[in-house]
Amino acid sequence: MRAQAEALRDDIVAIRRDIHQHPELGYRETRTAQRVIAQLVALGLPYRGGIAGTGVVAELKKGEGPTVIIRADMDALPIQEDTDLPYASTTPGVMHACGHDTHVAMGLGAARLLLDADFAGTVRFVFQPAEEGCYNDPNGWSGGQRMVKEGVHVGASAAIALHQVPVIPTGRISIRDGAVMAASDEVEIIVHGRAAHAGVSPQAGIDAIVIAAQLVTTLQTVVARNVGPTDTAVVSIGTIQGGSATNIVAESVRLTGTIRTLNMDTRAHVHARIAAICEHTAAMHGTTIDCRIANGYPVTMNDAGVSAVARDAARRVLGDGALLDLPPLMGGEDFSFTAQAVPSCFALLGTQGAERSPYSLHSPKMIVDEAALPLGAAWLAQTALDLLAHFATQR
Questions:
Q1: The pTM is what?
Q2: 135 lies in which domain range?
Q3: What does the pLDDT read at residue 127?
Q4: For each successive 10 residues of the chain (395 residues), what is the average pLDDT?
Q5: Which one of 126, 203, 223, 243 is separated from 256 by 20 to 30 angstroms, measured CA to CA?
């Protein structure tokens, strides 16, 4: 499979560069979807467009058998590219700084490889919008969540996906059981105070800034003293806004932050502790604090059985020494919604070339080693074939 993929390298790279030059934000991937459709038409694959807004789903069916999903996300980020590449983004303020352009190219490359492969069953190619967030979705759903709501996973025995990582060397891949990526939630806290003259009569006010400062410090104890040392969680306050003048006791302060956890019990416990800290801090200061925690992406969990097949495929395609044993990452990933609905495997593929660029995901200087693209396409195709054979024996 690797040799066949290497023969397609120029085509896969050309697709990637075209998409990279014309990045589109979530739920706006109209041009990207059109390019995907054009490739599917050229391959003779039936497809459906307009799924979850701008998503595209195609199926390659060869006789009766199980169904395996290959998923690729399509959206870019609101970042101004700073790479000086000849195929850099031509859209001001938008860049494929997470490498979803490579995911699309590898997904289409896998379709090319599977077209001539011998198997029984169906491979469903899911080109998904809006992985990076919900944007203006009326329900506040990301593309992956909306696709699951629309039933893209129905009838599938398994699903696979990968994410390029530009700080892992090309040719290496991490496929683990259990948690791969963290649950990613957001917290918004509004501290209600009472304004007063900060120099003449500060005692007449309730200082929202003082309370907010205490909250920022106390919230750090959620991880330090409420999460076990063998577990992992993050609570970070990223913004703080409040106050109107140097001589006025602040009437309100707004704080926002992120919460990351690796299992559902810890997730619920951390949420409860943050809410309790806000409630009791408010009581202590004789005021009120609004605490809103918005559930984002759940933990991305790999099924052990699917991952075992995926690791074997990686050894066959990339070699025995390709596998890495990386710990879970604390980033969020909306493939988690698919993984909740169907046994899944999410792999991390190295795309760091010999120049060893230090810039990672979401950097305006991120560089992807395109030599990794045929490797990813080959792994996706081989894993899909092996999963079809695996599940066929269980029918």
A1: 0.94
A2: 2-181+299-392
A3: 98
A4: 97 98 98 98 98 98 97 98 97 98 98 97 98 92 97 98 98 97 97 97 97 97 95 97 97 98 96 98 98 96 98 96 95 97 98 94 98 98 98 85
A5: 203
Which residues, 6 or more positions from 38, have their beta carbon under 8 angstroms from its beta carbon? none
SS3 label, residue 326: coil
The secondary structure of residue 316, as a DSSP letter, is: H
- Residues 190 and 267 occupy one common structural domain: yes
CATH code at position 26: 3.40.630.10
**Is residue 166 located within the same domain as residue 234?**
no
Residues 158 and 28 in one domain: yes
Are residues 125 and 107 in contact, defined by beta-carbon separation less than 8 angstroms? yes
Strands 55-62 and 121-128 come out as: antiparallel
Q: Are residues 341 and 288 in the same domain?
A: no
Cα–Cα distance between 364 and 286 in angstroms, integer? 46
Give how many domains the chain has, as a whole number. Answer: 2
